[in-house]
Amino acid sequence: xxxxxxxxxxxxxxxxxxxxxxxxxxxxxxxxxxxxxxxxxxxxxxxxxxxxxxxxxxxxxxxxxxxxxxxxxxxxxxxxxxxxxxxxxxxxxxxxxxxxxxxxxxxxxxxxxxxxxxxxxxxxxxxxxxxxxxxxxxxxxxxxxxxxxxxxxxxxxxxxxxxxxxxxxxxxxxx
Length: 175
Prior knowledge:
Number of strands: 7
Radius of gyration: 16 Å
Number of domains: 1
Distance between the termini: 39 Å
CATH topology: Endonuclease, Chain A
Strand order of the largest sheet: 6-5-4-1-2-3-7
Strand content: 15-25%
CATH architecture: 2-Layer Sandwich
Shape: globular
Order of helices and strands: HEHHHEHEEEEHEH
């Protein structure tokens, strides 16, 4: 891995065309939005801070400028509590500002990219590999070496070829 001249955070305003995310875990509950997750589990309303999170401004600014922000999540049913939260609160909230979501459901099919890590890729030119602990806590990211970018583009392309739009998947399997 190498470091990019930009940080992961800086890429979200610097990218010119697209930001793609591959999510492979069932639990990111210790990586932000912990209070909202606890509210979800307790059956309470979404906290104001969650409904107006800075991420919504970041994504909204990008999509208003004609940029694409999209992700594929590889998952299986039954959903974990965290995935029920992420899909029913997070994805649906983020869709209001133009973020796109796709699902690869491995409940009845094999994962087409079992070795792919979690990552963000910007303009097909930089891939930040995300690291998490077993409890879903974000540990950091490292940018892939330039010679590995073709692997990350292939992960993205394969994921998209096997994924269905979130709204279609949710209509069939949502809770």
